[in-house]
Amino acid sequence: MTEYLKIVDFGPISEIELSDIRPLTVLIGQSGSGKSTIMKVLSLFRWMYKRVNLRSFIKHSKIKNTKIGFKTKPLLRASGLLEYLTPTSQIVYRNGPYEIVMKNGAASAKFVVAREHLSLEKVVFISDKRSIIPDLLGSSIDRHKDNYYLQDTLENFRTAYKFISELDLNFLGVKFSVLKQKNGINDFRISGQGINGDYSIKLSNSSSGIQTATSVGLIVDYYATKYNLEDSLNRALFSYFADNDNLKNFRAGMNVGEFPNRRVNIFIEEPELSLYPDNQIEMIDFLVSHCFSSKHQYDMTLMLATHSPYIVNYLNLLIARYVGNADDEISINPDMVSVYLIEEGTLINLKVRGNNGMPLIDATRLSDPISNIYDQYDNLSQ
């Protein structure tokens, strides 16, 4: 179903509208322009929609008072978004015919999702604060709980390494591994081949780029290859019935496995953190192949907030490979891609048609800073 988001007067956002959110959406712009704000709002409203789907499934099972809802301001506060709220703030989220609207600081979602539209949803947010995860893994410090998105990233990382004890991070040229020790403490290692031969070091002692990229690689690999959406919903249902003593009244109208729609939504802040341009490009290959080139039991979406013109320009090569039927290389259908520049609180769609009619991402604006440097250099050197 078509997915829509509109945000008005919210933090750095003046007014933006995403009329048809594509599976791969990239947001680029200056620091503080609102990229993360858009991602956090969309992830929050997708979570609300997930909650409504759970409530609808239980209502279809003849339980009228589900006691499943949400309070908007506590959610905004936990997400660090409450201080962005103004008297004129408005957010509209639609998924097909279903609409959640936030006005006056409160969101309304009183609809019941029809059986044929019920969806299993998982929202995964990978924070730009992830560089401290290696230190948090070996620490009893709970300061990460002050940041919901960092906490979510850490918990997803912990879940992932329970299922994945080794992972080749080819875009970094290293391998991640988890070694269990006798004292019960895990030893997280990075191994590879250096100038002086093979090496193995603690994740916390590796480079900043390896540290930030390892959590991205492990979490994405888990949700692309190991995650079970049905088990996740079954656990949520069990918890709900245990808390509300409603199991005796439950008469499932359909099995969880019969949900017609299933989706895992991954949000990544600054995937390029501390990475050399070549590694940034190789990471995009990793993300695209895992999320869109592999077969899953569910659909996957990927939204990136980035400062990297390399990532945006590289998407053109992925699109050209698809159009040119380069089956032996990683590619992506242009219909699945959207790229937006955020400027002065509004969105500029960078996806255009080239002279040959082929879709492309117009990255001209992203080259302006470099062009200006060269122009100034030429003027000074004359």
Question: How does this structure look, described?
Answer:
- With 382 residues, this protein is α+β, with helices and mostly antiparallel strands.
- It has a single domain (3-381), classed as Rossmann fold.
- Helices cover 36% and strands 27% of the residues.
- The chain has helices at 35-60, 72-78, 133-137, 148-163, 208-225, 229-244, 277-293, 309-323, 364-381, and strands spanning 3-10, 13-18, 24-29, 90-95, 98-103, 106-108, 119-126, 166-169, 174-180, 186-194, 197-202, 261-269, 299-306, 337-343, 346-349, 351-353, 359-361.
- It has a six-stranded mixed beta sheet with strand order 7-12-13-3-14-15, sandwiched between helices. Strands 2-1-4-5-6 form a five-stranded antiparallel beta sheet, covered by helices on one side. Strands 8-9-10-11 form a four-stranded antiparallel beta sheet, with helices on one face.
- β9 (174-180) and β10 (186-194) form a beta hairpin.
- α4 (148-163) crosses α5 and α5 (208-225) runs parallel beside α7.
- The longest helix is centred in the first third of the chain and has 26 residues, at 35-60.
- The chain starts with a strand and ends with a helix.
What is the helix content?
25-40%
Please tell me the overall pLDDT: 88
CATH top level assignment = Alpha Beta
* CATH architecture classification: 3-Layer(aba) Sandwich
In short:
With 382 residues, the chain is an alpha+beta fold. The protein contains 9 helices and 17 strands.
Label this structure with key terms.
5-stranded antiparallel sheet, Rossmann fold, 9 helices, 382 residues, 17 strands, 6-stranded mixed sheet, alpha+beta, 36% helix
